[in-house]
Amino acid sequence: MFLKCLLAVLVTSLVSAERLPGPEERIIGGNHMVIEEAPYHVGILEYGVHKCGGAIYSERIVLTAAHCLNASNAEIYSVRAGSSFPNFGGQVVDVQEAYRHEDFKYTTIKNVTLVANDIAVLLLKDRINLNTQRTRSIQLAKKNPATGTECRVTGWGDTIFGSNLGAPRLLGARLNISDYKLCRTKYFTKLLGVTKGMICAYTPGKDSCNFDSGGPLVSLPDLKLIGIVSWGYKCAEPDFPGIYTSVFSFRDWIKNTISKIQKNTIHN
After folding, report:
1. What confidence tier does 209 reach under pLDDT thresholds 50, 70, 90?
2. Active site includes 252?
3. Which pLDDT score, from 0 to 100, does residue 23 have?
4. Active site residue 118
5. Is 213 among the residues known to form the active site?
6. Of the listed 118, 158, 207, 212, which one is catalytic?
7. Which of 107, 168, 190, 231 is the Cys-Cys partner for 23 at CB 3.0 to 4.6 Å?
8. Which domain holds residue 185?
């Protein structure tokens, strides 16, 4: 989307608003879709301009990547739901509060760049209308996907790495979950750390890219939310899977955060 989202050649040269700074911004090799095929998908806007993707959890709760939220002022963000296009249509709802994971970090340890806990919960000021074919909530995965599991990532990100233009309409790409240990080993050759709480997904020639950060990775055919676009080495780089925050790994954090929101905000 936030960060799905990272590194060109030198990690130190990256500072991206759309994907995490570090490994490169992130759909490459995807197909056009209409929002009815992914009604859980939303766009995250900053000052009214598309920045990242997100997933509808409920009428007032959206999940995205922590790295998508670079400002402490939640009021600069809004969500576009129910549109196949990033810049018009659908329903736009302002964000009331943004809750980044308290241990989210992007750092370098012993020359290895690490991104961790890249997840955030957004509380909206108003309700998304879920009584249409264009807007639907999505269920969280109850387990991590097995290697080889077919999945799909959606977004309005670049279709060519480095273009920084984004896509004018929604795209989707089918991927497969990669072996975690092989993925981790491959990234270590670039001094990039794939940490616990991440999953890897890859199909040759297909990947998320710039402006896809924070978007949903869903299992097929059951359409459960298994990942959130986080980062990767370039886009669709041979043998380098895209890196996603594992929703199952953060399921308890998501539930606990939403419970606190409901107690402190929604029911007040």
Report:
1. low
2. no
3. 37
4. yes
5. yes
6. 118
7. 231
8. 11-266
pLDDT at 233: 82
What are the helix (H) ranges across the chain? Answer: 180-188, 251-261
Selected catalytic residue, list 83, 213, 230, 246: 213
> Exposure string (b/e) for 109-141, b if CB count within 10 Å is 16 or more?
eeeebbbbbbbbbbbbeeebebeeebbbbbebb
Is 54 a member of any domain? yes
The DSSP line for 26-54 is --BT-EE--GGGSTTEEEEEETTEEEEEE
* Exposed/middle/buried for residue 266 (C-beta within 10 Å: 0-12, 13-18, 19+): middle
Domain annotation covers residue 3: no
Q: Is the pLDDT of residue 111 over 90?
A: no
* Assigned domain for 5 exists: no
pLDDT of residue 156: 86
Look up the CATH number of the domain holding residue 53: 2.40.10.10
Domain count, the chain: 1
Catalytic residue among 16, 41, 50, 67: 67
